Amino acid sequence: MATKKMSRESYEKLVAELDDLKINKRKEVAERLKVARSYGDLSENAEYDEAKNEQAILEAQINELQYTIDNAEIVDDDNISVDEIGMSSKITIKRLDTGKTETFTIVGTNHANVKEGLISDESPIGKAAMKKRVGDTFIVEAPAGELKFEVVEISK
Questions:
Q1: What is the rounded distance in angstroms from the CA atom of residue 131 to the CA atom of residue 17?
Q2: Which of 47, 70, 87, 101 has its CA 20 to 30 A from that of 116?
């Protein structure tokens, strides 16, 4: 995986999430392991197996977050282009068949939340919109067929 562009806010959320996993979640899982171990025979101890699985999943999450943070490229507000769609761009697009407009902010996959208007740069719309300028049109392949959009506005 190459560097991943993200806003400072997204980066700081990831760092906070990683800290929480390392400090709080690890303690919780370690405590569950300790309690499960106290039940005796580990070969037939479902609580112990469950806690070990939870520990493995937690460590995988920590490693993945650490990798993302280590390979992050922070895009500060000053570097967000209003000429061309990129990471952290706030875009208003119009669906050409219905005339309906929507506004989204392009974010990294970890922070996408369509209900909040945050779409991933790897989502169908996000990917298709990248590098487009105001007035450009683009097509998104959807289960319902091709959707055509026009870029109405790009802001920070």
A1: 30
A2: 70
